[in-house]
Amino acid sequence: MGIAMSYENYRTSLDKNAANFIPLTPLTFLERTADVYPDRIALVHGDLKQSWGETRTRCRRLASALIRQGVKPGDTVSVLCPNTPAMLEAHFGIPWAGAVLNAINHRLDADGIAYILEHGESKVLLVDREFSGLTAKVLEAVKSTIFVIRIDDPLAPEGAPIGDIEYEEFLRQGDADFRGLWPQDEWDPIALNYTSGTTGDPKGVVPSHRGTHLMSMAQIVNWSVPTHPVYLWTLPMFHANGWCFTWAITAVAGTHVCLRKVTAHDINAAIERYGVTHFCAAPIVLANLVQSPGGSEAAPRAHPVRVLTAGSPPPAAVLKTIQERGFLVDHVYGMTEASGTPISCAWQEEWDGRPQAEQVLLRARQGVRCALLDELAVLDPITGEPVPSDGKTVGEIMVRGNMVMKGYYRNPAATEKAFAGGWLGTGDLAVVHPDGYIQITDRLKDIIISGGENISSVEVEDILYRHPAVLNAAVVAQPDEKWGETPCAFVEIKADAGVVSEEDLIAFCRENLAHFKCPRRIIFMELPKTATGKLQKFRLREIAGSRDAITKLATLSPQR
Fold first, then answer.
1. What separation, in Å, do the N-terminal and C-terminal C-alpha atoms of the chain show?
2. In CATH terms, are 48-208 and 445-555 the same topology?
3. Per residue in 165-201, pLDDT tens?
4. The dihedral of CA 293, 298, 301, 306: what is its sign?
């Protein structure tokens, strides 16, 4: 009773007001940076250098022009564009119009993009001219009327004329002094992000102004990002809004280095030309850097480059080589539904004295929650209880906190399922080590149950990556009359590797793994990937005839 009375006293005449409560939004970062550093370079793109003052003016014009075009608060405005200045400007200009930013994966086919535009109820589409042919097919399939703005990026390949107006002309219609429509409620949606399709079932994730503001701050704190970094855009901005680095790098007045195509050559060239200090990349991008011509033998960089990598654990051999070249790799874990990467392998100083091989293994762990994530747990998928911290018992990664999405757009059933039990279920399986750090063992859909034994596809893939001829590898389950399931490996071979047979790779695995974990079949092919470099294992499971994940969940033993 005394505590309750005390709180009542603190509530008296202590209400929220205009002076002490303003809805959180990452849009404030641009205002502050442009005020304090108006002449610093905000972005570079080829020979273009654009200041923060210029960038704010262009974003204001974009917001004003959208409103004049008839865009209303809550309308969806879509963007089909690579990592260019227009895509970065859209991350501020569209929300400043009160609209919801829908950045679309430009690697999708016409039907996939048409679905997103229809399901997302898009009113306006900004499209880079490289995708004009694709967009023409999309518009034929879309029933609603969409106002199309063509972006003539000077570095883009030629494309057929399309759209109602060109981007620069559209900006000139806007007011350079427009102050923007700021969110009235920090729970308002800021974006609509469709999942990348690794499961074959894209859903519209809706993050809030509050959640993306906090995720942006988390990225700065968690990665110790200094003021004025030079950040290279290898991670697509359409992927969870670039893990919120679109806003985070702006908050610390960094320089955004735009990159239309992510190749090893272009990454290395940009690092040398612009003095890049930070970038994010999927493990497969790091593998391509190492395996590019001269990549594994190249001398260390003149200055260290910080790299944030997420997804499946980077193969130990790749991680070792990339760090020897002067890339300081930090491993994180995240998902679109959490607005970015709220879990990371926070490095402990005492690990510096460990042998290099052990340090590589430590860095491969996903780690612990960041400072702004409220709770992280690994729970038994059957009982819902926390698994012991023994580094062996498998459970599902669960998170909860203010960075988690509002839910799935126009999909209440999927939203309810995602939040069952008061947690966001990730679908990723992990163990908890005695020091509290988690490590992914597999996707729930990818665990292989053979003769009652659980086999981690990640473990088998890591062995395959050690073979000098392997460029990329993915392992899924295939049906087996005797064992129920056995591992099936899909492998890409390096161009200069010569002849490598199925028998060679199976024998290599048997030298390095328990025999029951070894692939019974090797399929050589180019692996299907999303635009962010993630392997699309659902396509491989279709080829191999894997059992449905729901069946696996029912039979998964947490003690293996």
1. 49
2. no
3. 999 999 999 999 999 999 999 999 999 999 854 444 5
4. positive
CA–CA dist 253, 29 (Å, integer): 9
Give the tokens for residue 438. 């988690």
* Region class of 212: left (phi > 0), else alpha (psi between -120 and 50), else beta: alpha
CA distance 164 to 65: 14
Q: 515: Cβ–Cβ under 8 A, 6 or more apart, which residues? A: none
Greatest C-alpha distance within the chain: 79
Q: At what angle do helices 27-36 and 85-96 cross, to 10 degrees?
A: 110
Q: Per-residue pLDDT for 151 more than 50?
A: yes
Q: 129: which DSSP letter?
A: G
Range 445-555 classified under CATH 3.30.300.30: yes
With 70 as the cut, is the pLDDT of residue 532 above it? no
The stretches of 69-190 forming alpha helices (DSSP H) are 85-96, 110-119, 132-141, 167-172
Question: Residue 101: enclosing H or E segment and its boundaries?
Answer: strand 100-103
Would you tell me how many other CB atoms lie within 10 Å of the CB of residue 346?
Answer: 14
Task: Give the Cα separation of 469 and 502 in Å (integer).
Answer: 12
To the question of domain 48-208 being in CATH 3.40.630.30, the answer is: no
Query: What are 6's two structure tokens?
Result: 């005390």
Question: 169: which 2 tokens?
Answer: 């002309």
Give 450's contacts (C-beta < 8 A, 6+ positions apart).
477, 480, 483, 484, 485, 486, 487, 516
Q: How far apart are CA 499 and CA 507, in angstroms?
A: 15
| Host H or E run for residue 160 | none
Where is 307: in which H helix or E strand?
strand 305-310
Nearest to 242 by CA among 343, 361, 320, 334: 334
Whether pLDDT at 143 is above 80? yes
Q: Is 211 helix (H, G, I), strand (E, B) or coil?
A: helix
Q: Is 224 left (phi over 0), alpha (psi -120 to 50) or beta?
A: left
- Tell how far CA 553 is from the center of its chain: 26
DSSP H/E element including 182: none
Half-sphere exposure of 87 (CA within 13 A, CB side): 31
pLDDT at residue 3, as a whole number? 54
Which residue, among 292, 229, 255, 298, has the nearest Cα to 55 in the 3D structure? 255
Domain boundaries, the chain: 48-208, 282-442, 445-555
Whether 511 and 546 have beta carbons less than 8 Å apart is answered as no
Instruction: Report DSSP state, residue 191.
Output: B
Q: Which residue, chain included where needed, has tokens 């695995």?
A: 509
User: Residue for token digits 């942006």?
Assistant: 216
Decide: 251 and 213 in contact? Cβ < 8 Å: no
According to CATH, the superfamily of the domain at 282-442 is ANL, N-terminal domain (3.40.50.12780)
Beta bridge partners of 103: 79
pTM above 0.90? no
Fill in the amino acid letter for 422: G
Cα–Cα distance measured from residue 65 to residue 464, given in angstroms and rounded to the nearest whole number: 53
Can you tell me whether residue 397 is helix, strand or coil?
strand
- 280, 231 contact by CB (below 8 A): no
